[in-house]
Amino acid sequence: MEMDLEMTQARCKELAGTSSFYRLVCSEIEDIGWEHLVNLSDDVSSLSFRVIDKKERVHVFEIHLDKSYPNSLPSIAADVPYLFDLKWFANSRLKDVLLQFRKHLERLEEFWNTLESIDRNLSVMGPKQHSNATCYRQINIGNDCSLMLHIDAKAPKAFPECRFIGPDPAINSLRQKWHRNEKKWSKDKPIAENLSSVLEIRLPSPLDTERTTQTLDCGICYAEFLLIDEEGVEQSCSKTDFTCDNANCGRAFHSICLVEWLQSITTTRRSYGVLFGNCPYCSVPVAVRVNNKTE
């Protein structure tokens, strides 16, 4: 639920008349700008500000104040891989804390650029939206293998730590290449190029993964698995089992779906239990056998 800014301002101003602490905090929020305030606790000891960095990433920066503020150091929290050492002096105020946070975001710019390069150029597994504090990516590297890559937030272009996931024969070979080719890693190259060079493989791109997903999904029902309900038998799952022979198409189908579709087309011919028609996507001739399940 979004904060009601007008109500928050009114409450803060009301509290400002009751103590010097409330009065000080209220005036400092005014200096920063109420439009940047995301949340304010009832006792005004916890504040959250919205901060937008140079790449327009949105960050929420939390500041917690002791009642002895400004004589005591505020505590801070944010969705970043690590926090900065807050410098606090007798004349320091909330706007100084925010200024230090902005400078910290600038130091982290290369780290986030590296992760965004991975997301943009490689086949990343897991959630589509990662936290700004996340330092790792799980990358699909093909052949049922993946690479859990940890990026050092303080040295994002350095040779990273990693863990291979997949069948032992495949990942043992990849581990050997990883250690043998470590010196090939260059801070001047994009991370995708470095990974390909060290592992001596072509890494799948997001587009490759999308094409693979399209290939696995049925071109008629748009699902990879189809529930087959047979009389007296529990429902079972059937994967796509028919693929168009046209190399430029290669669309996958469930035989059941394709048979039903072909049977609805008046130009389809049937001979000895086989339907002859055309691919729904590229119109190349196809032939699919009709069995008990597809009747």
Question: What would you say this structure looks like, in words?
Answer:
The protein is α+β, with helices and mostly antiparallel strands and 295 residues long. 32% of the residues lie in helices and 23% in strands. The chain is built from 8 helices and 15 strands. The chain has helices spanning 5-16, 20-32, 94-107, 109-121, 168-180, 191-199, 206-216, 255-263, and strands at residues 37-40, 46-52, 58-64, 75-78, 124-125, 136-142, 145-150, 161-165, 225-228, 236-239, 242-243, 252-253, 269-271, 274-278, 285-289. Strands 1-2-3-4 form a 4-stranded antiparallel sheet, covered by helices on one side. The longest helix is centred in the middle third of the chain and has 14 residues, at 94-107. 19% of the residues are buried. Residues 232-236 have low confidence and may be disordered.
Q: Got a strand count?
A: 15
Q: What number is the mean pLDDT?
A: 87
Strand order of the largest sheet: 1-2-3-4
Shape: elongated
For the termini, the CA-CA separation is 54 Å
The number of helical runs is 8
Low-confidence stretches: 232-236
Which structural class best describes the helix and strand composition? alpha+beta
Q: Radius of gyration over alpha carbons?
A: 29 Å
Helix content: 25-40%
Main beta sheet: 4 strands, antiparallel
SSE arrangement, N to C: HHEEEEHHEEEEHHHEEEEHEEE
Tell me what portion of residues adopts beta-strand conformation.
Answer: 15-25%
Write the layout of secondary structure elements.
Layout: H1 5-16, H2 20-32, E1 37-40, E2 46-52, E3 58-64, E4 75-78, H3 94-107, H4 109-121, E5 124-125, E6 136-142, E7 145-150, E8 161-165, H5 168-180, H6 191-199, H7 206-216, E9 225-228, E10 236-239, E11 242-243, E12 252-253, H8 255-263, E13 269-271, E14 274-278, E15 285-289
Antiparallel strand pairs: 1-2, 2-3, 3-4, 5-6, 6-7, 7-8, 9-10, 11-12, 13-14, 14-15
